[in-house]
Fold this protein.
Amino acid sequence: MAAESGVVVRPARAEDLPTVARHYGSTGTTPWDPFTTPERLERIPRDGLLIAEKDGAYAGFLYWFEGRKPWFDKGADQYAQLEELRVLPEFQGWGVAQRLVDRFLRDVNERQIPLLYVATDETNQVAARIYESGGFRPFLRTIHYRKYR
């Protein structure tokens, strides 16, 4: 566990799940979102759920998973996907997100996972800087369409 400016990153424990769900909040009735309730969080592989604390207080979380043959990158095999990264507003600017990403990179390196993915909104420049500092580079853009009736 690395500490910088009082920031510690550790694997999640069962007692962290309600805090993660409260932090993530409700996103409506999306059936596939595992972060909205502790019960849903209990169903995901917890080895990819990391908790950040600053000076002993919960500061944020990161979730990643390992997969095979992603639909969006033909020819790729084993990979890790950084799925969610959240830091409470009062802890932003303290290096919490960077420490979480650093731990993710260390964990996937230890498992010798050769390919890593993360997605973020193109307007999220803070996330882009963090990911690019970890060696990520853009490779695919997705356009979301909408239509009002």
Observations:
- The chain has a mean pLDDT of 91.
- The helical segments are 17-24, 38-41, 96-110, 125-133.
- The radius of gyration is 16 Å.
- The chain has one domain: 3-133.
